[in-house]
Design a protein that fits this description.
The structure holds two protein chains of two kinds.
Chain A (H helix, E strand, L loop, with lengths): L1 H15 L1 H22 L9 H19 L1 H9 L2 H5 L5 H20 L3 H10 L6 H28 L3 H25 L5 H7 L1 H10 L4 H27 L1
Helix pairs in contact in A: 1-2, 1-6, 2-3, 3-8, 3-9, 3-11, 4-8, 6-8, 6-12, 8-9, 8-11, 8-12, 9-10
Chain B lengths: L1 E10 L2 E11 L4 E5 L6 H8 L7 E6 L2 E2 L4 H6 L1 E4 L11 H11 L4 H14 L15 H13 L5 E5 L7 H14 L4 E5 L3 H7 L2 E6 L2 E6 L1 H6 L4 E7 L2 H12 L4 E8 L4 E8 L5 H14 L3 E8 L3 H18 L1
Helix pairs in contact in B: 3-4, 4-5
The chains are: A mainly alpha, B alpha/beta.
């Protein structure tokens, strides 16, 4: 109940602040370019696959932008005090904020359904709905991981810019380490790196393969960072 | 109702609060006084459950603020210092958010929000963005949020901060109204305000409680200063001053001698000495020595004087240690 109250406030705030709208605009702009230049190509089979397989990169600047203020801003302005003295557990505060930002992410993806509709309308034969549904699922999952990392960074600092850069840097390192880094990794490390790869899992989804192990991977990564956020916030009380 | 038992808190090696103990019952309005950095805000943050104490315990109606934190927090209404709020929300939406956080039943939410808006004179700005409101209005939104869920214990950190004189008066009246059946603890650096509003004053200096009691009693225990001016033969002045110094209860005498045998002296009594008797005694000394008195007056003890004394005393104790 209190979790949903916090989630609702967070979601509403993102829509009342310029940062939310700018993040939506940025994402739709990037997705629009991909759609216009890589998907809407005459003579090519109708599929949104390029959009989904590149989305791990498209969301890279967007997710930190919507998650950076979650806790940082409360720490900076002092609103964390009335919030953490209300009868809500620290876990409830963090979970509420997380659900709020994930809700925002879902709403942000809605306008991209226009791409699907346009492709459906224009192409013959019609695109296969399976890979499209799987692709959207992968977008939500990867967004959940990114925003969970952003939430954690936001618990670590009262400075939004720092939270943004920290998240961006962290995700960039993970993405690069598991793509380019893979080739340079020693043979014994390669299976581990491959296991951690977000990109390769996104490719699978884009092909239309929904593998439970991938879903478990994304959800547990997200859960890990949410738990880290709770611990970080709790530890602030004891400092 | 609100019970602190030997509560201590340190930040690293800095001891912010040392062994604070007091108990407040419904109907009491207690003022927490102290210079900056005395540990007032830390004490308040421990009571509201924002910070856990290192040692000691705090209970609100029997609920420990650490072990039974959520139950204790539900009973407290809290206005933090400088009333932090979400600038993108409106007072009405913020209060409705708080009402949900405190789990007010759906049917009671709107009446509670309207009541809080009315009590804090926010009706005309209820739907404006908080970011556009003046500091005084924001302070009142914070106050409205604190009283919204009808808490048993009200903790107000500088409640009249940024308010104009009319609003200050109305806020004092509101606090007095609210205190009838609940505990109010407010911190302030405006001594006159504390003297006016509070039935009890707790003075903190350097993390320790230095005085605790009704304002009138504390003031009675503070030092009194008398001022005397007289004309006497020049050689008599020193003897008069020496005799004044030896009067019972006198702590210090400072004097300046002018031309024509004019002398002005400030006589400070130790805390607790009878103020009226002192004035009398000074008069007798001057009369006996044949001085012509031109001024003899008493500056009564005040909370301000007590406050300054306690702060100085704490500094002396520290030097001695």
């Amino acid at each position: 109940m209190a979790v949903l109250t916090i989630a609702r406030r967070e979601l509403a705030s993102l829509f009342r602040l310029p940062v939310g709208w700018i993040a939506v605009a940025l994402y739709l702009f990037l997705a629009g370019i991909v759609f216009a230049y890589l998907i809407l190509v005459p003579g090519q089979p109708a599929s949104l696959r390029p959009l989904f397989s590149i989305s791990a990169w498209l969301l890279l600047p967007v997710a930190p932008a919507i998650s950076m203020r979650l806790v940082s801003e409360e720490l900076r302005s002092g609103t964390i005090e009335p919030l953490m003295t209300a009868p809500v557990s620290d876990g409830g505060v963090v979970l509420g904020k997380y659900l709020g930002v994930v809700g925002f992410l879902l709403i942000m993806l809605v306008p991209t359904l226009a791409h699907t509709a346009a492709l459906w309308w224009l192409s013959d034969p019609r695109p296969d709905p399976g890979p499209i549904a799987a692709g959207y699922l992968s977008l939500v999952l990867v967004g959940m991981v990114y925003t969970a990392v952003g939430l954690w960074m936001s618990c670590l600092t009262a400075n939004q810019t720092l939270a943004f850069l920290g998240t961006l840097f962290f995700l960039l390192v993970v993405l690069l380490a598991t793509t380019i880094g893979f080739e340079y990794a020693p043979a014994w490390l390669q299976p581990v790196v491959a296991e951690l790869s977000i990109q390769s899992r996104m490719q699978e989804f884009a092909k239309g393969v929904i593998d439970t192990s991938h879903i478990v991977y994304f959800l547990s990564a997200a859960a890990l960072f949410v738990v880290l956020s709770v611990l970080t916030l709790e530890s602030r009380r004891w400092r | 109702m609100l019970d602190l038992q030997r509560v201590s808190k340190s930040y690293g090696r800095f001891r912010a609060v040392t062994s604070a103990t007091f108990r407040l019952e419904p109907g009491e309005i207690a003022g927490l006084l102290g210079p900056n950095g005395a540990g007032k805000t830390t004490t308040i943050r421990m009571i509201t459950g924002f910070l856990p104490p290192d040692q000691g315990s705090i209970t609100v109606a029997g609920n420990d603020t650490v072990l039974d934190s959520l139950a204790a927090r539900r009973l407290i209404g809290y206005l933090p210092e400088s009333a932090p709020l979400y600038p993108e929300m409106t007072p009405a939406s913020y209060l409705s958010f708080r009402a949900r956080l405190y789990k007010l039943p759906a049917a009671d939410r709107r009446p509670a929000v309207n009541r809080a808006l009315d009590s804090c004179w926010l009706g005309d700005v209820a739907n404006k963005r908080i970011g556009q409101l003046s500091k005084g209005y924001r302070q009142r939104v914070g106050l409205a949020a604190a009283i919204l869920h009808d808490p048993r214990v009200l903790i107000l950190d500088e409640p009249t901060n940024a308010l104009d004189p009319t609003q200050v008066r109305e806020t004092r009246r509101l606090i007095a109204d609210l205190a009838r059946d609940r505990v109010v603890l407010l911190s302030s650096h405006i001594l006159a305000e504390v003297e006016l509003v509070c039935s009890r004053v707790i003075v903190m200096v350097r993390g320790k409680i230095r005085a605790d009691g009704p304002p009138a009693r504390l003031i009675a225990s503070a030092a009194t200063t008398c001022r005397a001016e007289w004309v006497s033969p020049p050689d008599a002045a020193d003897a008069i001053i020496a005799e004044l110094r030896s009067l019972p209860g006198v702590r210090d005498v400072s004097s300046t001698q002018g031309q024509g045998g004019h002398t002005a002296a400030t006589i400070e009594s130790a805390a607790g000495a009878g103020a009226a008797d002192l004035l009398d005694a000074i008069g007798r000394v001057l009369h006996a020595r044949g001085a012509r008195v031109t001024l003899l007056t008493r500056r009564d003890a005040s909370l301000e004087r007590l406050f300054v004394e306690l702060v100085e005393q704490a500094a002396d104790d520290r030097e001695a240690a």
